[in-house]
């Protein structure tokens, strides 16, 4: 048997006839699994009923609807312990929520690597094997026991519930560990617990620093505005309240402000000895009380969330350290070249506005801004006398100056956090016609981040006083950009920037207007 336990198992892959379906099938076959392939919803249900595979992978775009097929499969009696894994678009939180609400046992992103995909499948097979083993034991007991069938079934249900809960905790821990966004972690946790417990309503509160008021992170089935209106002083008092004897977690005993909103159970979220937050629930849909098992599960899930939240805090601190490093590098650049003081900040501002105009997401915009701020970091290795030289530059001078993109790339080479920003540092002097440097890239060979920074850099250079030129007016600078479109600059980027400039949609800061003739 190989490391993923593939031997002897046939899996059902329900995916369209496209690259995603082919990739899934290829990875699983190479791992030794037998594959049943369905390309539509009806075909998937038919194959499932005939072959009863232990694990089914359903792609989000399956013709016939992935979510309905998932529900239909789980409602059949053919393979009651089969595990369903949804394959969803990357970073699509709504798709993940829909998958779990449809009854899926797990969700994996399409861009997950083979190791992660095979690990999820192996985990599902282990859960299936446990459930199958439990079912077989149940059958043996039924054959050997003539009386007490009702009690036996109750015990069996409790055992199966415990196994399911353990699996849920493991899956939830994996899901939260995969994200460093606290709000996403909170929503995953609340969605899972509400589904497991059948609670009518639930809220999750958290605070990063000791003694600070708990902030609302996630809500299900409650009045969000009413929750947000709870005074800060009252939210601070919850921390001491949860530490008081007999306060929590006891159903029916919650702070007055929460009780007034129909909430009945408060479970602390702890990181080591410190309370970092709380999960607060309304009554169960069934009207039954929360059991000791429910509370143990909630405490375990809460502890997992606390660890994930702490990781998110540490990640933000690391990001802050990187930002401070960037600011220090920018200060070093400007100290060597006083004529460009403020240049990097303006280029970063223009480039960030351009990136947003072009539809890039927040993370990509941040990398664009970092790349713009650091685009001239390689000038650290160039003599000040050359940077500030008046008059024409010699060929030797030009060779030295044109080395700064490569030098900048090397300076940032070991900072993984800036791997995308490095593309702007190395390639912001490339030209669309291939006549730029250092690598003579052309057209779309030039990374978009570099094409954005090139336009922002050129615009600022044209509109500010430099040692070798007087500033142009706004319209003169726009005319120059448009005149170089398709040769030096990317047409798409220039059009977007001109739209921002003429619409007054970008902060021009201290743009120096030039006298017109």
What does this structure look like?
The protein is of the alpha/beta class and 517 residues long. The protein folds into 3 domains: 10-144, Rossmann fold (3-Layer(aba) Sandwich); 182-313, GAF domain (Beta-Lactamase); 337-502, Hypothetical protein af1432 (Orthogonal Bundle). The protein contains 20 helices and 9 strands. A 5-stranded parallel sheet has the order 2-1-3-4-5, sandwiched between helices. Helix 4 (93-101) links the parallel strand 4 and strand 5. Helix 2 packs parallel to helix 3 (66-75), helix 7 packs antiparallel against helix 11 (292-336) and helix 17 crosses helix 18. The longest helix has 45 residues, at 292-336. The chain is globular.
Which features does this protein show?
517 residues, alpha/beta, Rossmann fold, Beta-Lactamase, Hypothetical protein af1432, 5-stranded parallel β-sheet, 4-stranded antiparallel β-sheet, globular, disordered N terminus, disordered C terminus
Distance between the termini: 82 Å
CATH first level of the largest domain: which class?
Mainly Alpha
Mean pLDDT across every amino acid position? 81
- Can you count the beta strands? 9
Helix content: 40-55%
Main beta sheet, described? 5 strands, parallel
Number of helices: 20
- For the record, the count of structural domains works out to 3
The global form is globular
Based on CA atoms alone, the radius of gyration comes out at 30 Å
